């Protein structure tokens, strides 16, 4: 293939919202046999909504939500956004925060209105039978429950739900039909991840993965001889996108993800992966 035909192909793709960095990306894509997909913001819309607040240990639900919203106001995470918006809708009072911290892939901590609050997953708050039990029915529906602790004691759960993009099932069906092996990779809890994967017919799930582990999973698959495309949207996906044979960023995601990827799907529509693959095959046929 001439550079001209490659340019014509990538130009056509660009008009359909698929940005391909260079010809080498198309060449690499042809041999891809495995597609690793981040859950939040890639398979799902990445715009979770507040579903439920269940306080334990003497707090009221409203008080827990007000404390949580104050802390999450300083976080950029989509979960934080859902909590802040949820509290605003209920016109809860805004509270003063000190010592805010956000350990990546775990959650947020700080002092709110004099109380030491931790909000996040079990890696941050620890596992507690009562909170796990409270979270179970929500997780079984694919919703995300995060744990709260106040002054080191379990204080309840906050549940958010993030709908699957309407384009996702069709995209996965086409990719599976082409023989690609699909793997879900997520920082979210195992039970939530399994439920979403089941809905989508994905059998291979890696859950509770810390950001630096995401790249390790990709490297592990490549070491086994697989050719791996990775689709993701977040800051936490950037190293994995860079490590993959082909990195695919969602245009609805973060800039750093797009900078680390060879392909960007402007609208975050995974059907773009099917099209990009078709383009790669057409171009490579011409070259050979
Ligand atoms: P992902 O976007 O793949 O779910 P992250 O690495 O961003 O993964 O987060 C992993 C987990 O850490 C989340 O599922 C959540 O439980 C927790 N977490 C991260 N950030 C926050 C936050 N701001 N508030 C509460 N929990 C959080
Ligand atoms: Mg994500």
| Backbone structural class | alpha/beta
The level 1 CATH classification of the largest domain is Alpha Beta
Number of helices: 13
Order of adjacent strands in the largest pleated sheet: 1-13-12-11-2-9-10
Radius of gyration: 21 Å
Q: Kindly report how far apart the N and C termini lie.
A: 7 Å
Low-pLDDT parts are: none
What share of residues are in beta strands? 15-25%
Protein name: Copper-translocating P-type ATPase
Organism: Asticcacaulis excentricus (strain ATCC 15261 / DSM 4724 / KCTC 12464 / NCIMB 9791 / VKM B-1370 / CB 48)
Subcellular location: Cell membrane
Family: Belongs to the cation transport ATPase (P-type) (TC 3.A.3) family. Type IB subfamily.
Question: What is this structure's SSE topology?
Answer:
Layout: H1 3-15, E1 18-20, H2 23-30, E2 34-38, H3 39-43, E3 49-55, H4 61-72, H5 78-89, E4 97-101, E5 107-112, E6 115-120, H6 122-125, H7 129-139, E7 144-150, E8 153-161, H8 168-177, E9 181-185, H9 190-200, E10 204-206, H10 211-223, E11 228-232, H11 238-243, E12 246-250, H12 255-260, E13 263-265, H13 271-287
Parallel strand pairs: 2-9, 2-11, 9-10, 11-12, 12-13
Antiparallel strand pairs: 1-13, 3-8, 4-5, 5-6, 6-7, 7-8
Helix pairs in contact: 1-13, 2-13, 4-5, 8-13
The structure holds adenosine-5'-diphosphate and magnesium ion.
């Amino acid at each position: 293939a001439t550079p001209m035909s490659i340019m014509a192909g990538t130009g056509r793709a660009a008009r359909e919202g698929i940005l391909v960095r260079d010809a080498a990306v198309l060449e690499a894509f042809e041999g891809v046999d495995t597609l690793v997909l981040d859950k939040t913001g890639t398979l799902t819309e990445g715009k979770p909504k507040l579903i439920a607040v269940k306080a334990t240990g003497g707090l009221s639900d409203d008080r827990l939500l007000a404390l949580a919203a104050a802390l999450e106001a300083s976080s950029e995470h989509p979960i934080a956004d859902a909590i802040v918006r949820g509290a605003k809708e209920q016109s809860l009072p805004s509270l003063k925060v000190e010592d805010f911290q956000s350990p990546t892939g775990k959650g947020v901590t700080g002092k709110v209105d004099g109380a030491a609050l931790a909000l996040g997953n079990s890696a941050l708050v620890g596992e507690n039978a009562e909170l796990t039990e409270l979270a179970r029915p929500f997780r079984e529906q694919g919703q995300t429950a995060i744990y709260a602790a106040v002054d080191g004691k379990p204080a309840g759960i906050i549940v958010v739900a993030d709908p699957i993009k309407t384009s996702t099932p069709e995209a996965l069906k086409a990719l599976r039909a082409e023989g690609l092996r699909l793997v879900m990779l997520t920082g979210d809890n195992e039970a939530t991840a399994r439920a979403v994967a089941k809905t989508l017919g994905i059998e291979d799930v890696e859950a509770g993965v810390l950001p630096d582990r995401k790249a390790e999973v990709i490297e592990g698959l490549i070491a086994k001889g697989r050719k791996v495309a990775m689709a993701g949207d977040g800051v936490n996906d950037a190293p994995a996108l860079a490590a993959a044979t082909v990195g695919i960023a969602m245009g609805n995601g973060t800039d750093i993800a797009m900078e680390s990827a060879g392909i960007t799907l402007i609208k975050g529509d995974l059907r773009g992966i099917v099209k990009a693959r078709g383009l790669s095959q057409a171009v490579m046929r011409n070259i050979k």
